[in-house]
């Protein structure tokens, strides 16, 4: 039996392709015949420049290069291949009649994967070629897996972008809510899809209610749960459960509708309701950090309670607090993503800095004060994207 056919490379159902680059016709003809007897498809080139062009065009599984050639020698071809991102993973074998250690070291340094002596036996040629083809098969398998992962990553990023666009479509339109209430907001989503949402709604001609919610965790599931809770808090839905804009009743029903999930996911929520006739703001919270009331006279009050988030206890009773709103007062609702923004040192921005910055912009229009507040948190963090969603909802009362 011919030793060339002892073991053909059975790497896949497709015939492997070998590019043979050698300027000596007799030597090239002999090696090509040997490779063909091994069941391989053989491409031939008479010099390095021609070989490089064929390699780029045909993408063979393995390329065998003579060291000494006109136009471009073997090691130079290797260097060109390793500098080209489209073909840098090609498997290259250098043929040489001078297989000295220093020459082998030079060839490897310049990009060759293996060496083949021109005086090699048939068995050695077979072994070297099969080894190169196995390596090529492995590399291409890895590249194929990489490409699949990139495609899936692209699909996932597209889905996350669509989900993020949908979440942001649920946010309110800034401007005049009533003739005596103006609203503005600033929102900075994190890289991961989050679940911070807020809104302002009319209950009737005299009552306006507003809220901010935060779903625990990140990703599509928390974001969609947040969208569900936001839909639940629409006035046309809440009227099926209650006949007044009572924040405590809203919170009680939300607590009943949104228990802890099996994996422990939950919501924090702040709800306030303003009566334009009495100028009273009633509010309640469920695990939320609270809102900031900025008085026209320059004082500030935190509107918050210490109560469990939604879903922890089905029979939770929510406390209502009432405050009187005066002309020029502002109420700021915020997610914890802004005051928990870390500096590069790890120190959090904190509620004190937030309060001080908000007060420093009390004379600016609300539509300028909120972006300035967000920008200051960004400067503290040192990057335009926070680890968590950062949301600000502001209302200004002109009574």
Describe the protein in words:
By secondary structure, the protein is α+β, with helices and mostly antiparallel strands. The chain folds into two domains: 142 residues, 3-Layer(aba) Sandwich (Rossmann fold); 228 residues, Phosphatase 2c, domain 1 (4-Layer Sandwich), CATH 3.60.40.10. The protein is built from eleven helices and 16 strands. It has a six-stranded antiparallel β-sheet. Strands 2-1-3-4-5 form a five-stranded parallel β-sheet, with helices on both faces. α2 runs parallel beside α3 and α5 runs parallel beside α6. The longest helix is centred in the middle third of the chain and has 48 residues. The N and C termini lie far apart (103 Å). The N terminus is likely disordered.
Task: Return the CATH class of the largest domain.
Answer: Alpha Beta
By CATH's scheme, which homologous superfamily of the largest domain applies?
PPM-type phosphatase domain
Q: In percent, how helical is the residue content?
A: 25-40%
Biggest pleated sheet? 6 strands, antiparallel
Alpha-beta classification: alpha+beta
Please state the CA-atom Rg, rounded to the nearest Å. Answer: 35 Å
State the assembly state of the protein chains: single chain
Tally of individual domains: 2
Low-confidence stretches: 1-13
Find the CATH topology of the largest domain.
Phosphatase 2c, domain 1
What is the topology, as strand order, of the major beta sheet? 6-7-16-15-12-13
The number of distinct β-strands equals 16
